[in-house]
Amino acid sequence: MQDVNDSIIKEASRCYCCKNAQCVKYCPLGVDIPEIMRLVKDGKEYEAYRLLSNSTLFGAICGVVCPHSHQCEGHCLKGLTDRAVAIGQVERMLTEQYQHSLTVGTDCGKSVAIVGAGVSGIACALNLRKLGIAVTMYEKQHLTGGVVRYGIPDFRLKKDALDKLTAMLYQTGVTLITSCEVGTMVTLPQLLEEFDAVYLATGLQGNVKLGIVGEQCNGVVFGADYLKNVQRAKHVVVVGGGNSAIDCARTALRHSQKTTLVYRRTVNEIPAYPDELQAALDEGLNIEYLAQPIEILNNQGKVTGIKLCRMQPSEVQSDGRKGVVATNNTFDIQCDLVVVAIGNNLHFAGDTAPQSINGRVAVDKDMHTSIDRVYAGGDVVNTVNTVAYAIKQGMDAANSIAYDLGISCTNKAD
Predict the structure, then answer these.
(1) Residue 314, number of CB atoms within 10 A of its CB
(2) CB of 285 within 8 A of CB of 259?
(3) What's the rounded Cα separation, in Å, for the pair 4 and 137?
(4) DSSP string of 135-194, one letter each residue
(5) What residues pair up with 345 in beta bridges, in sequence order?
(6) What is the longest distance spanned by two Cα atoms in the chain?
(7) How far apart are the C-alpha atoms of 152 and 247, rounded to whole Å?
(8) φ and ψ at 404, to 5 degrees?
(9) How far apart are CA 70 and CA 22, in angstroms?
(10) What three-state secondary structure class fits 217?
(11) Is 378 left (phi over 0), alpha (psi -120 to 50) or beta?
């Protein structure tokens, strides 16, 4: 433990503890990073963790998977002349060392159902329990964690932190019902009859398809399914350019003889984080830029390759990236597995679903949906699909639910 303490004290001592800290401004959870660093420098690590836990109980996860170079660390003043302070590392180590249990508020006689036990649902549940509100969680999968458990490979994040949070759910008295899909096994109207409020944190359950000939063949899988159940192959072609596609490609590199990523634009437009992309390249990933899938090749329904159209850059589009147009050139890549990782979309089982806008559940500033007493947050709402934003909305939803139920909540979001 002394080595751990020495390590985080050394790193925290590099912090300037800025008064107008940009790292705080760019942290989705608003963590008081300068004060945490000051406490660590003064040898008050436990006090630093207590302050951190006021903003998030997910330091062991955010400290690893957050895009720090785009958020806190990317705006660290120290980084202008030297290496930025490793804020994520300090938060992770504090959480791993000191997080054990959570104090539950006095029972207030109110109850909430949470649909989805990913990080947004867990954040909402734990914050509701702090206020004495009873919580029952419904999770379609066998284990909690959502995309963090099933969509982030173990080589990027060990799942111990999720297991500890699951233990905290039980410790605080949350009723957790797994392997239960809301919409089929139990309906939203039934939940509204039994509970005072419902929080939807299901994530994006639908898969975006390529819409090309042969996509139904044996040997074509979607990215989320591939990460849940990795298949070995001689040559894997991953279609996509986001962080999930890179995760699939890096996973395939560990389970196949050859892996190729296919992306329809150039390296300048690829949405994956640069450090993740570079890690994949360092591991041997081959990338075909400016290549658009137009057909899955097969022999008697089994994938034998993928036909691609060579694209060329066009004018800049409204999102600031160059578009692409097709050329007359096509080429084939032989492979025995195609992983489609071009995105996910909104999907609710059953007939009852709140109003959506642009592929996301529509909510107001207090996380209310179009259905009375139903709130939503996380990836079903966010267009920025990061762990920290999902956690933030789970916490905001808990505050809004408590306020609407007449429960005192001194930390209600503005």
Answers:
(1) 10
(2) yes
(3) 35
(4) EEEE-SSSSSBHHHHHSS-TTT--THHHHHHHHHHHHTT-EEE-S--BTTTB-HHHHHHH
(5) 206
(6) 69
(7) 7
(8) -65, -30
(9) 12
(10) coil
(11) left
Q: What is the number of residues in the chain?
A: 414
Cα-based angle 176, 374, 106 (whole degrees, multiple of 5): 55
DSSP state at residue 380: G
Tens digit of pLDDT for each residue in 145-162?
Answer: 999 999 999 999 999 999
What is the H or E stretch that residue 45 is in? helix 45-55
The pLDDT, as a whole number, for residue 100 is 87
With b for 16 or more beta-carbon neighbours within 10 A and e for fewer, the 273-291 pattern comes to: beebbeebeeeebbbbbbb
- Residue partners of 242: CB distance under 8 A and separation at least 6: 271, 272, 341, 342, 343
pLDDT in tens, 48-64: 999 999 999 999 999 99
Q: Which segments in the chain show pLDDT lower than 70? A: 1-4, 409-414
Interhelix angle 87-98/45-55, nearest 10 degrees: 100
CA dihedral (101, 62, 393, 351) positive or negative: negative
Residue 172: CB atoms within 10 Å:
18
CA-CA-CA-CA torsion sign (292, 379, 61, 135): negative
pTM for this prediction: 0.92
Burial of 318 (0-12, 13-18, 19+ CB in 10 A): exposed
- The pLDDT, as a whole number, for residue 350 is 77
Provide the 10 A C-beta neighbour count for residue 352: 16
Contacts of 71 (CB under 8 A, 6+ apart): 26, 27, 28, 388
Cβ–Cβ under 8 Å, residues 197 and 125: no
Q: What are phi and psi of 25, to 5 degrees?
A: -60, -35
- Sheet of 111-115: strands edge to edge? 175-177, 134-138, 111-115, 197-200, 374-376
Phi, psi of 81 (to 5 degrees): -125, -10
Taking the C-alpha atoms of residue 338 and residue 239, their distance in angstroms, rounded to an integer, is: 7
Q: Which residues contact 8 (CB under 8 A, 6 or more apart)?
A: 40, 45, 89, 90, 93, 94
Q: Specify the residue for token string 């279609």.
A: 239
